[in-house]
Amino acid sequence: MTEIDFIKKNKQEPDRKNPLDGPAVEPDQAWFEQPASEPPFARHVHTTPLHLVASTESGTNDWTVWNGYTVANTYTHIVTEYDALRVNAGLSDISPLVKIRISGKEVVAYLDHLLTAPVGRMKTHDTKRVFVCAGTGHLVTEGVLFRLAETEFRLVARSKHLDWFLDAGIGFEVIIDDVSGTLAGLSLCGPRAPLILADAGLNMAADLRRGKACWEEPARMPTYVSRTGLLGESQFELWVDPEDAPLLWNLLLTAGRRHALKPVGEAARNMVRLEQGVLLEGYDYASAFASCEALSPATPYDLGQGTHVALDRPTFNGQAALRKLVASGSGRVPAAFTLMGEEGDRPGAVYANGHHVGRVTSHTWSPSLQMHVAIGLMDIQGLGTSGVYTLDVMTGNGQAQKRVAQFVKRPFLHNSAAFPAD
Q: Whole-prediction pTM value?
């Protein structure tokens, strides 16, 4: 382009005024409209009840999508937020989790038919890790079940399967509702979490044992607090009305100031999840109904969760397939590896004695161990290799390598459930 052409182009396409130039700038309607070329069904950005208060804390403008909602990936720096979870405490937005309310006279019978283990012995405010299987024995989803009252439960899961839950309820006198939009969620995790709850006026919650829940009312905000979550013993989850969620967030941040509480995004939470060795739906295996080439569906036995399956009882979803699997033996096992390398390395296929036996589905650099940790599903034939395996690794600069890895027990940090506080 010549200089004359450049000048002509500038005359034909004058620079747009910016709304940040000041109040004298007249608003341009284009500021508020999606591009005309974008189809309406592609406009799917949703925000949680905590989005505005989370935005004020964000120094990175680094966001990620979870169940169609925008949540913070990092607020400051992943290592800073990781240290908060491990040494002091971190506060996170977990509102995108799916919340299903199940109630009615036959709610226990329905859940016993739906889940791989019975729920009749659960007491009010008890929680239980549960698995939902399709007829093939593969997992539809997993989650945490809360008993709120004698005939009322809430299932908190990672993925949406309301239609399937409704179909499974045919013939039972139950009411099944997706209440995800009526309930916000906060995660408070770290060694100092109980001290922060107590300072915020949630004294009963601070003393909760793992797997228990209770009602609290800080600043007259009804809040259901449970000692649940993927990140270990030091995690609490708080469930509150959406309009109260920002107030509760600020209340906890204020109470946690002297305990070095920090907002924590999904990147650091996922790092701690991996150090716990937790295989996660959508990351390490696919739902039975998901169409995903990268991941395969899994059974509870594939995930090492056979203790959550009770076969000797009346019929439940997937029972026949799971019985056959027990008789023949599960062909896969959860695998955890440590290996040396740099932070940008990406491990992939797993080999035992030169034979391909599985692949890594999630990995991270562990600041505590100063090495890579990786998890995935492996063929059971890969066991018994003296604990030494070979992994395909793509380095940060694009070089393909084979690297020796050590097969280890989960969690990677055996004392990660509760780090000592000063």
A: 0.85
